[in-house]
Amino acid sequence: MKERARILVVGGGYVGLYTALRLQRRLKRELGRGEAEITVVSPDPYMTYQPFLPEAAAGAISPRHVVVPLRRVLDRCHVVIGEATGIDHAKRTATISTLATGEEGTGGRQIPYDELVLAPGSVSRTLPIPGLADHAIGFKTVEEAIGLRNHVLEQMDIASSTRDPAIRDAALTFVFVGGGYAGVEALGELEDMARYAARYYHNIRPEDMKWILVEASARILPEVGEEMGRYTVTELRRRNIDVRLETRLESCADRVAVLSDGSRFPTRTVVWTAGVKPHPVLAATDLPLNERGRLKCTAELTVDGAPHAWAAGDAASVPDVSAEGPPRECAPNAQHALRQARVLGDNVVRSLRGEPLETYAHKYAGSVASLGLHKGVAQVYGRKLKGYPAWFMHRTYHLSRVPTFNRKARVAAEWTLAGLFKREIVSLGSLEHPRAEFELAAGGKPSQDPPDNPKGSS
């Protein structure tokens, strides 16, 4: 190993966290002797376990239990909260913008490194649809999940108290765009929650609400197979959810969702989950990218043609050596990301010690998806499950994958308590503007939200 190996990990998501965990475990002696140092740069001080976002939105899990604090878990790493804005791998330097950068007015901070692990993940892929930027909400972060929960409950409050039928109809119409995991699971959990909450409103029945899923392709949840995808459509429609296949959102301007089939739905809720794209920082590097903007990687998780640069997860195009037939890439999903991170961490250590690298090879085990409480679909090792068994498998699998025993115990405890007591259906949208009431009391003018969006919950 070099006299001092400086390892920079860009990103604190699945790959960033698990790689750093692996590195600090494998390099424990070197870190103690000062022969290695690990720096993790992340825009947030926590990692979000995204498969639990739908349950957090539905109130089945506390928001703080779907995030993992980086500083507590990565106690042997130097955690920097900030964004990588550029990487010059030829000079082995990364430019970082931190929370203090704007205060100091000195520009980005330069961090030198010897080994680079790029794991910035992905961002929502949007389209130039009129009104989308003004009215839609995504579903990639815990803040978005909780904001959406608050928003749905507040729309029910509006519908319950208004005398205007048009306002009531728009408040009770919820449009989800995208039939992948995020869209289907978020819709399934929130519809389940709203159906339960309706029993506490004297003038709202579950059948008064319109839930609409818009998908541009001919199927939803392609990861669970065609048969389970068809079952999911049937199950959702049985719950009075309007599933529109081969349909696109063309506009949501003026709070009206206009679909490509000519349908128009006045709505105050548009949830955008129609895919992701590589993080923009990849374009600000001198590393090779493929036609879709992902890093070209080898099966050993090195960046092709760039020594001492490594990548995995959503940001990386990794060849799938276990796939039969023509060459394919590993799907950018959590299952591959978790396993790639372990191999990546081990390979960085092997490289530092001059040992041969390991090839990443993992046969896809299958997929599980939740459709609400006690409802789900799964295809695991060729076996198809639906209903309660699939839902139970979904929970069991993700509980085993969430990092740290602390988080596992807390989530399991919450699920146990949720089985004994009733759901919580409280909206805390005012948390997003905590100074508003004090500003008003002090004679100031509180922040003004749009009149059709009370408390700024979406």
Mean pLDDT across the residues is 89
CATH architecture of the largest domain: 3-Layer(bba) Sandwich
Rg over alpha carbons: 23 Å
In total, how many domains does the architecture comprise? 2
Domain FAD/NAD(P)-binding: 6-340
Pfam families: Pyr_redox_2
Protein name: NAD(P)/FAD-dependent oxidoreductase
InterPro entries: FAD/NAD-bd_sf, FAD/NAD-binding_dom, NDH-2
Descriptive account of the structure:
The protein has 458 residues and is an alpha/beta fold. The protein folds into two domains: 5-124 and 277-352, FAD/NAD(P)-binding domain (3-Layer(bba) Sandwich); 132-274 and 366-420, FAD/NAD(P)-binding domain (3-Layer(bba) Sandwich), CATH 3.50.50. It is built from 14 helices and 24 strands. The strands form seven sheets. A seven-stranded mixed β-sheet has the order 7-6-5-2-1-8-20. The chain has a five-stranded parallel β-sheet with strand order 10-17-11-12-13. The N and C termini lie far apart (50 Å).
Helices and strands in order:
Elements: E1 5-10, H1 14-26, H2 28-32, E2 36-42, E3 46-48, H3 53-57, E4 67-69, H4 70-73, E5 78-88, E6 93-98, H5 101-104, E7 109-112, E8 115-118, E9 122-124, H6 132-135, E10 136-137, H7 142-161, H8 165-171, E11 173-177, H9 181-197, E12 210-214, H10 226-238, E13 241-244, E14 249-251, E15 256-259, E16 264-266, E17 269-272, E18 276-278, E19 295-296, E20 309-311, E21 316-317, H11 334-352, E22 366-372, E23 375-380, E24 383-386, H12 388-401, H13 405-420, H14 436-441
Parallel strand pairs: 1-2, 1-8, 2-5, 8-20, 10-17, 11-12, 11-17, 12-13, 19-21
Antiparallel strand pairs: 3-4, 5-6, 6-7, 9-18, 14-15, 15-16, 22-23, 23-24
Helix pairs in contact: 1-11, 7-8
